[in-house]
Design a protein that fits this description.
This protein is α+β, with helices and mostly antiparallel strands and about 450 residues long. The chain has twelve helices and seven strands. It has helices at about 15-25, 30-65, 70-100, 115-125, 125-160, 160-170, 200-230, 235-290, 300-325, 335-345, 365-385, 420-430; strands at about 180, 195, 350-355, 390-395, 400-405, 435, 445-450. The strands form two sheets. It has a five-stranded mixed beta sheet, with helices on one face. β3 (about 350-355), α11 (about 365-385) and β4 (about 390-395) form a beta-alpha-beta unit. It starts with 12 loop residues before the first helix and ends with a strand.
Length: about 450
């Protein structure tokens, strides 16, 4: 029997080569340049904002504490929160433009009432105080970001050491140690000095290593800033919740209105027409019967009228059943697993189904999950070119997770006419989420997360 190695398995060469390319290419990537620019541009804004906001806040607090200038002090305090909001908007713009970190702005403060009521509302402005906190914390973070820029500068300077030696002839003189090597990290024994042209290549190697490390140092410091932007510069949790509820309520109202208009149109153009034809056929058949006791003049015509009436009644019944199925599919009466099994069996693309739901969701959630699965499988059939698909439904704590994957061509995006935008709006009405992963060439994976109860 072959011995099993006890050590950890070595990484495949392809994985190691890919990671090496990532490390070597990091200084030349667009993200690295954008983060370095953000660090460089953000520092003066942070410095000016820190000084102005802290000055107004300190003066206002001091005057308020003295009691003699309390009103003026309070005015300075609320001015500092308003100024902090303005600087927060600048920082949000920089984060969005350079980092792609798009944080929605908090709602504008529009206090009403008399002077002291408006003053009290501004003093209670939670978004303004979060902006003050960010402006004050931003300066030390910006100083660290400026330190990250120093890694780039020192790396470039050291990398050019051989060129500078050759171009300017920088050679050691009496009492001098040679060309110094600059490092962003303080060296315990002092940075090495180049006393010969060959020695400058040591400085160049240090510069290259510094440049390779600079993007990762910058990214680590900027990650802290990203977290602060998301935590302090967006709308508060309660305000965001209210905004989401307003949007989902509007979506639910629009969806209900659209459903009612569709039902009205379908009934008017479909079942109503069939029932009118049924009534007319029965009226004509009634006239063909003649008076009581008289023989039927044209039995063949009467038979045709009755057949037409029967056909109209059957078609009207079919359309009414289809309308009812569009509101609440009857297959859901036996539960979501059976409904999804029927849906998968009817698909023209083979669908592998796996359902594990220990707790049955509420009817509204089951209906939304069923329609999401139906729409996603329809997208697979119409747009993906896939040979097979997988539909998995699981329960994760208090969430119902529905995931559809396929081996198609990929490239699915919101707003591309695939119905995904409508699904996103549908799941948002119950605080659900929809996530899409669909690179060009596939595979495509769409995950819908819904609460179990709504």
């Amino acid at each position: 029997m072959q011995d099993t190695p006890t050590g950890a398995p070595s990484q495949p060469p392809a994985v190691g080569a890919a990671r090496l390319r990532v490390v070597l290419g990091a200084p030349f990537g667009g993200r690295a340049r954008a983060e370095a620019a953000y660090c460089l541009v953000g520092f003066p804004v942070a410095l000016v904002g820190f000084v102005l906001v802290l000055l107004l806040l300190a003066l206002g607090t001091g005057l308020t504490a003295s009691l003699l200038g309390a009103v003026l002090g309070l005015l300075l305090v609320v001015t500092s929160t308003g100024l902090a909001r303005a600087f927060a908007a600048v920082h949000r713009g920089l984060a969005a433009g350079l980092l792609g970190e798009r944080v929605p702005a908090p709602p504008p403060l529009r206090p009403a009432g008399k002077f002291f009521a408006r003053l009290d509302a501004r003093l209670r402005d939670a978004a303004g105080w979060r902006s003050v906190a960010y402006v004050l914390v931003k300066l030390p973070v910006a100083a660290l970001e400026l330190y990250a820029v120093a890694w780039w500068l020192t790396g470039l300077v050291n990398l050019s050491a051989p060129l500078r030696w050759a171009a300017f002839g920088q050679r050691p003189h009496d009492g001098m140690e040679g060309m110094p090597t600059i490092t962003p990290v303080p060296a315990g024994g002092g940075a090495p000095h180049s006393t010969t042209f060959a020695g400058t290549f040591v400085a160049a190697a240090i510069g290259a290593a510094t440049l390779l490390a600079a993007p990762w140092v910058t990214s680590g410091i900027v990650a802290v800033d990203r977290w602060l932007v998301r935590a302090l510069l967006g709308p508060g949790e309660l305000a965001q919740r209210v905004r989401n509820l307003e949007e989902t309520r509007a979506l639910a109202v629009d969806d209900s209105a659209a459903l009612l208009r569709r039902l009205e149109r379908d009934l008017h153009d479909g079942a109503q027409v069939r029932l009118v034809a049924l009534a007319m056929s029965l009226d004509m058949a009634k006239e063909g019967l003649g008076a009581d006791g008289e023989p039927i003049a044209d039995p063949a015509r009467l038979r045709r009228l009755l057949e037409t009436a029967h056909s109209s009644a059957t078609e009207a019944l079919t359309e009414l059943r289809d309308l009812a199925r569009g509101i609440h599919p009857p297959v859901l009466d036996d539960g979501l697993p059976d409904a999804l099994a029927t849906l998968a069996a009817r698909s023209t693309v083979p669908v592998e189904l796996a359902v594990d739901i220990p707790e049955r969701p509420t009817p509204a959630i089951e209906t939304i999950a069923y329609f999401c699965a139906a729409e996603l499988i329809t997208n697979v059939i119409k747009h993906s070119g896939a040979r097979r698909a997988i539909l998995r439904v699981t329960q994760e704590e208090d969430l119902l997770c529905l995931r559809v994957t396929d081996d198609g061509r990929g490239g699915a995006t919101l707003g591309a006419g695939s119905g995904l935008t409508g699904l996103t709006q549908r799941v948002r009405t119950v605080d659900g989420t929809l996530d899409i992963t669909s690179p060009q060439g596939g595979p495509t994976a769409v995950t819908v997360a819904l609460p179990l109860h709504a």
